[in-house]
Design goal:
With 232 residues, this protein is an alpha/beta fold. It has a domain of 119 residues: Rossmann fold, CATH 3.40.50.300. Helices cover 46% and strands 12% of the residues. The two termini are 18 Å apart. Bound molecules: adenosine monophosphate.
Length: 232
């Protein structure tokens, strides 16, 4: 759409359980509106790989499928949003994940983002992707990713052209450490316990938009674009 690479867009917050398709949809939003995806899971995994103090602190918690403490995640998000490429907007994928993070984000946006320099003073666009529990399990157990380019596949739903190899660069696809069945269950428990209240937080403020994440991917994307295009 004309102008999508220049207009300022309110921050887009994607909510949903692990496996709901947030990462896939975030990449599509990124391509259409030219605003960056901020995946807290990806940033934490990069820190683990690079052996930073944050990575050391997060590793064991993530391997158990539990949430990294807010005191570590919030400053990490603040640093990322302050980067220049977020000036026209950004997509949060995997944050906020607790009601405390949601409250922190509201205060941060109010103080640092929605000021005159961004030419907009409106609320973030909050989209919850709802997916059936058994479907989540199926998606998470089938998930594979490319260690080189980050592309995500699913052996049931979106297999690569050649078994276990990335279509883009031929790398051998990998299973994330926390996509093992016992860890998946813990991550889904954490979602119900800690992240559902985030949707309630935005619902109570009348700001929650919901899409049916069980629908085919392109239909979910169409619904999301429609919400963003019509956000006032
Ligand atoms: P994801 O890639 O979004 O599924 O996140 C993988 C893991 O990273 C989660 O299971 C958590 O351990 C950690 N994580 C990601 N985002 C957050 C967050 N906003 N708050 C706390 N922990 C997080």
């Amino acid at each position: 759409m004309a102008g999508e690479s220049s207009r300022t867009i309110e921050p887009v917050i994607l909510l949903g359980a692990p496996g709901a398709g947030k990462g896939t949809q975030a990449k599509r939003i990124e391509q259409r509106y030219h605003i960056p995806q901020i995946s807290t899971g990806d940033i934490l995994r990069q820190n683990i790989k690079a052996g930073t103090p944050l990575g050391h602190a997060a590793k064991a918690v993530m391997e158990r499928g539990q949430l990294v403490p807010d005191e570590l995640v919030c400053p990490m998000v603040a640093d990322r949003i302050r980067e220049i490429d977020c000036e026209r907007g950004f997509i949060l994928d995997g944050f906020p994940r607790t009601a405390a993070q949601a409250g922190w984000l509201d205060a941060f946006l109010e103080n640092e983002f929605f000021d005159n320099s961004h030419g907009c003073n409106r609320l973030p666009i909050v989209i919850s992707m709802d997916v059936d529990y058994n479907e989540l399990l199926r998606r998470l157990t089938g998930r594979r990713s490319c260690p080189t380019c980050g592309r995500i596949y699913n052996v049931h739903l979106q297999p690569p052209k050649v078994d276990e190899l990335c279509d883009n660069d031929g790398s051998k696809l990998v299973i994330r450490d926390d996509d093992r069945e016992e860890v998946i269950r813990e991550r889904l428990n954490e979602f119900v316990r800690q992240t559902r209240p985030v949707a309630d937080y935005y619902q109570a403020k009348g700001r929650l938009k919901t899409v049916n994440g069980d629908l085919p991917m392109d239909q979910v994307t169409a619904q999301i674009f429609c919400i963003i295009d019509n956000h006032v």
